[in-house]
Amino acid sequence: MRHGRLWAEWGVLYLALPLLIAVVLPPGSMFPALFAGTAFGIWLLHRTGGFRWRDLRQGRIEPAAVAVFAVVTMAVALAVSIGTSGDPLRFATANPGFLVLILIFYPILSALPQELVFRVLWYHRYAPILPGGWPGIILNAAVFSLAHLMYWSGIVAVMTFVGGLAFAWAYQRRGSFPMAVVMHALAGQIVFALGLGMFFYSGNVVRPF
To answer: Are 189 and 11 in contact (CB under 8 A)?
Structure first.
């Protein structure tokens, strides 16, 4: 496949679409457009030469690395929650049933498809045109953070960039898609359990223009 076509695909999926969602589309259209982009990315992955779905089972989950990531994420999320709302358990106590649904479905409906698009597709299809090693991981994390620009939140930008570093490290450096998904799922569950889901709610989006 010619590099020009790869650059065009990469630019549309990872740059143009997030900017369109964040700047142009009304809040009510953000998630349908995001889901459409995710579906397009998964379709591209399926058509990528050399990719096999069964290969995603390869790689082990390293308990120590996951535990350290979870503890650090919880500590940071707790500090941010206390600093912004003063009560990190307010959402959990007010909406226990809804929180349970989030904890159950977030890994399947959010973490898994995002990892397919931002890690598996990224490294399988676009590796020939993108830097490798840590420069590539940093670029991946930056673009992952850009994908969350639609929330127009500095807190979201920092959290997703740091999380993106960890997820890309798990997939690219440790060779483990399962660990990347588990870490992503844990991060989302912790964030929502400690009341930071308000930063990821389209109804709270306030564009700075």
So the answer is: no
